[in-house]
Amino acid sequence: MNKIVVATGNEGKAKEFRELLKGLNVTILTLRDFPDVIMPEENGYTFAANALLKARAVAERTGLPALGDDSGLEVDFLKGAPGVYSARFAGEPSNDLLNNQKLLQLMAGVPWDKRTARFRCALALIEPEGKEHIAEGMVEGFIAYELKGEYGFGYDPLFYLPAYGKTYAELGEELKNGLSHRALAVKNLRPVLRELFGEKQEL
C-alpha cells in the first residue's frame, strides 16, 4: 500500500492535506501515527528550509515518503514579519488566538492601504531513496481590522481576500482548499506526487 507521512501533528493542517491530496492512490499518515518521532527545531531562515528539515527528519525515522510544509504570514508594514516565526509569534507554546491578538495590536491604527500581506507555503517531498522536491504557493491579501469567521486555523480569521470580500476563515473549508497558499503549493507538487503514487481508479 502506498503511504506518505505528512510532517504535522496539527489536526487542522492534517485535515486540509487529506482534502488536498484526495484522488491520489496513497494513504496519508501524520505524526500522530508515529508518536516516537521527534521533530527538529525549525531554525531555517526560509519556509523551504524549514519544510525540508521536517520532511528529512520524518523520512529518516519512518522509512516512508515524507511531506513537510512550512507556511506563514508576511505583513508588509511589519517588514515581512511574522514570516517563519508565524506559529510562535506571541511566544511558546504556539497559540493562534494570542498570535492574532499580537498582530492586531501591532497593526492598530494602520490604514487599509498599508495592511497588505501574503500567505506563503513551501512543501518539501522526500522520496524513500532520498530524492527531494520543493514546491511553493502564495496568496496576496490584507490584514483585517478584527477577527472574522469560524473556519480554518492560525491567522485565517485576519487574512482578508478582496476578491471574495471575506477572510480565509469565512470562506469555508471547500472554497479555501481550492485557492489557499497550501492548495497552490500542492497543485505545483501534484505532478511529482502523481508520478510517485498514481491516482485512484474510479470504480
UniProtKB/TrEMBL annotation:
Gene Ontology annotations for the cellular component aspect, listed alphabetically: cytosol
Pfam families on file: Ham1p_like
Annotated positions binding substrate: 8-13, 71, 153-156, 176, 181-182
UniProt-annotated binding residues for Mg(2+): 41, 70
Main EC class the enzyme belongs to: hydrolase
Catalytic activity: ITP + H2O = IMP + diphosphate + H(+); XTP + H2O = XMP + diphosphate + H(+); dITP + H2O = dIMP + diphosphate + H(+)
Cofactor note as given: Binds 1 Mg(2+) ion per subunit.
Residue numbers annotated as active site: 70
Keyword annotations from UniProtKB, A to Z: Hydrolase, Magnesium, Metal-binding, Nucleotide metabolism, Nucleotide-binding
GO BP term (any one): purine nucleoside triphosphate catabolic process
Function in brief: Pyrophosphatase that catalyzes the hydrolysis of nucleoside triphosphates to their monophosphate derivatives, with a high preference for the non-canonical purine nucleotides XTP (xanthosine triphosphate), dITP (deoxyinosine triphosphate) and ITP. Seems to function as a house-cleaning enzyme that removes non-canonical purine nucleotides from the nucleotide pool, thus preventing their incorporation into DNA/RNA and avoiding chromosomal lesions.
Subunit structure, interactors included: Homodimer.
Family: Belongs to the HAM1 NTPase family.
Protein name in the entry: dITP/XTP pyrophosphatase
Name of the gene: rdgB
